[in-house]
Amino acid sequence: MSIEIAGVSKRFGEFVALDDVSVSIPSGRLTALLGPSGGGKSTLLRIIAGLERSDSGRVEIEGIDATDLPPQRRNVGFVFQHYAAFKHMSVRRNVAFGLEIRKRPKHEVAARVDELLKLVHLEQFGDRLPAQLSGGQRQRMALARALAVRPTVLLLDEPFGALDAKVRKELRDWLRRLHDEVHVTTVFVTHDQEEALEVADEIVVINEGRVEQIGSPDDLYDRPANDFVMRFLGPVT
Ligand code: ADP
Ligand code: MG
């Protein structure tokens, strides 16, 4: 099982954002889409999420052809750089939102929310408003919210980009631990080489709308596919 992207292209007017991209993203792993700004990472993530349609090609998610499915039928959870919380709702209700709109029974929602708040170490903060959390805590809330409906795939677009370096490092370690606990297929976008190399099991290097290489951090360092990958990863420090 995996996310299979086959022959996906996307143009914005004359500009080719993705050029016949085919890549297989393994199931149950933590995969980074890494590359310089403007390379097409977010566009690819949004196509996987169903938030953007490709001009051609196919997207298969865990054995299901998702090419024509709307986002809410893909069973994916997302977290974006700028968290989108309901400001007037408590942390609990923010986390519960996806379950409530699916009309799950109240006791089931309450139990799941308790479990999630514990998972992201926010059990003390359920009654606060999002504005009363730190930036790092808010992103943890966003993670809990994305995981609430037990998605088969978790998608994160520069999830820690807006945070300062120390918190970013903390959350990075924390995403790794969370993934080791939950094992949900996770794809995160980053332009930060160090972040990808430290956190990801697999890295898909994307540049100018094309996949330059896919491999483990060791593969990329020891066997860079081309000059671009070698230059982009830079000297080993
Ligand atoms: P990345 O996430 O790697 O920085 P993006 O996928 O956001 O790159 O964007 C790739 C290219 O496509 C960029 O040059 C960007 O300006 C362009 N692009 C992305 N979305 C749109 C859009 N909705 N309309 C026009 N151009 C877009
Ligand atoms: Mg982006």
Automatic annotation (TrEMBL):
UniProt entry keywords in alphabetical sequence: ATP-binding, Nucleotide-binding, Sulfate transport, Translocase, Transport
Sequence ranges assigned to domain ABC transporter in this UniProt record: 3-233
Keyword Translocase: yes
Coiled-coil residues: none
Source superkingdom: Bacteria
Keyword Ligase attached: no
Protein name: TOBE-like domain-containing protein
